[in-house]
Amino acid sequence: MKERNKMGTAVVTGASSGLGEVFAEKLAKRGYDLKLVARRKDRLDSIAQKLESKYGIKATNLVADLGLDTDLEKVAEELRNDKSITLLINNAGTSTLASVTNTSVIKQKEMVNVNITAVMLLSNAILPSFLEKNEGTLINIASVLGFYSLPISAVYSGTKGFVVQYTKGLQEEVKGTNIRVQLVNPATTATELWEVGGVPLSALEQSTIMTAENCVDAILSGLDQGELLTHPSVNDQNLIDAYEDARIKLMQGSQSGQPAERYNKI
């Protein structure tokens, strides 16, 4: 582990609760200075004061709603101008779990703005600095619903599907550099996202719910082990490998200029 004063600054979005709050604690313990991004100033102030006192780090709060263009640009500008940043965790997210016809356009756009646009623009803001230094870590929090849809998750799954493919593309872009890009696909985790989304945790099978602390510990352990793809709750690595292998083979099998034989029977 590097010395504390050489860890640099970690940016955590959605830092006022859930995974983001736990990330802030764990990273402060590792010696990172922090930039914490969220909407709730009172929560951020409380978290920052606690972590500064407990770990002797510097915590700066960026109060922002990443669903708003003006706030998002403010945070992106902060990232572009701060060369001390060595780690960005795109953790902020929102959900409305309901059928498309029962979800307002406003709620659908909120999911797109926070889950897609913010991830893209903040990644865009920090990557040039990482490339210039040939160093830096980007962690994008997607979801198992990025590759699986429910009748109530069409929009949410679509936004997380973007994060999955976008992050994989970034990994290809930075190959051969010292920049690390980690894609994380949590399953059911005990955060406020479920209440916000309209499905209380009490309605779910309790044995499937992971605590936020366990989830973050798994993510950071995966990062320490050099993983590019982290599924915090998947115990069988063969499942992950088989899915990735099938995905690549399907892409390879699509490379033909002729219709598949099953379409020539008409």
Structure in words:
With 266 residues, this protein is an alpha/beta fold. It has a single domain (4-263), classed as Rossmann fold (3-Layer(aba) Sandwich). 47% of the residues lie in helices and 14% in strands. Strands 3-2-1-4-5-6-7 form a seven-stranded parallel beta sheet, sandwiched between helices. Helix 5 links the parallel strand 5 and strand 6 (179-184). Helix 1 (18-30) crosses helix 7 (212-224) and helix 4 packs parallel to helix 5 (154-173). The radius of gyration is 19 Å and the shape is globular. It starts with 8 loop residues before the first strand and ends in a 13-residue tail after the last helix. The model has no long low-confidence stretch (mean pLDDT 94).
Order of helices and strands: EHEHEHEHEHEHHEH
**Which strand order do you get reading across the main beta sheet?**
3-2-1-4-5-6-7
Span from first to last CA? Answer: 64 Å
- Classified by CATH, the class is Alpha Beta
Average of pLDDT: 94
Topology overview:
Blueprint: E1 9-13, H1 18-30, E2 33-38, H2 41-55, E3 59-63, H3 69-81, E4 85-90, H4 105-133, E5 136-141, H5 154-173, E6 179-184, H6 193-197, H7 212-224, E7 229-230, H8 237-253
Parallel strand pairs: 1-2, 1-4, 2-3, 4-5, 5-6, 6-7
Helix pairs in contact: 1-2, 1-7, 3-4, 4-5
Task: Summarize this entry quickly.
This protein has 266 residues and is of the alpha/beta class. It has helices spanning 18-30, 41-55, 69-81, 105-133, 154-173, 193-197, 212-224, 237-253; strands at residues 9-13, 33-38, 59-63, 85-90, 136-141, 179-184, 229-230. It has one domain: 3-Layer(aba) Sandwich (Rossmann fold).
